[in-house]
Design a protein that fits this description.
two-stranded antiparallel sheet; 2 strands; 11 helices; mainly alpha; Formate dehydrogenase/DMSO reductase fold
Length: about 325
Amino acid sequence: MHLQDLWFIAIAVLWTGYFFLEGFDFGVGVLTRVLAKDETERRVLINTVAPVWDGNEVWVLTAGGATFAAFPEWYASLFSGFYLPLLLVLVALILRGVAFEYRGKRDSARWRAGWDHAIFFGSLLPAFLWGVAFANIVRGVALDGRHLYVGSFLDLLNVYSLVGGLTTLLLFTYHGAVYTALKTTGDIRDRARALATRIGVATIVAAAGFLVWTQVNHGSAATAVTAGLAAVALVASWALTRVDGRDGWRFGLSGAAIAFAAVTLFVSLYPNVLPSTLDAANSLTVDNAAASPKTLGIMTWVAVLFLPLVLLYQGWTYWVFRKRIGVRDIPAYQAH
């Protein structure tokens, strides 16, 4: 295996980890305006992700940095061609992060309501736009002979990409609902499981449609297997929402569905990293978009040395904050 192939796999793993982890806290952010009945329940939901959301976002920073270093041509074409949607994602993530930190700084219902809307839209918008972006990456975009995007923003809003965006939004919201059932107690846990049951139906339909579309147009024998595994995991997770308990299994299976769906997209893409819809010769591949072998070699040694430490630290964080919380664990409101 060549180093450029190894780093394509590494980037796929980073994005898959990001969608698994950030997916549930995007879902929780959306549910703060859907599931929570009052301020106390909203604080319960926020506290389920408060210790981990910023660590989850490290995965996308690492994925972006790895793409820049390992595949500079891919990074340049992608981030210039997708400038507006990625800017919207960035602004949404910034506002969302600020909202988590600032909503409790003042004892004002109006103040908190404003930041709560930032959490909601700062979660909903990226959850949708990441699906739009990756659907376009798999489908291909208008790249010319210099590997420059020559289409428009509206070209990115094609039917396939919009279905992709709807699929990731529903998947992440469902993932957030089963995560909430895993991390909470009492009435809010019961309502989260019931909501997951209802959302799950729409999620299965959207995901099945998107994966079948992807398989027909871009698939192979390998993607048929990964897409099938994603479907089985999602249906099994949804079936368990009707069973009391099994919260960990539901969450693990919903995460597996997201992971297998992400793998399906990357396997569909390979050996391209950004296909051209104008001429196949204009497409970016793992070979013509890669950095020099020396650069890839240095990156590989750095990853081997530091990646285990990062994974151990994040795993320790989840272990420390593993306990469930409920309304009784939320003290009377105090600005801080």
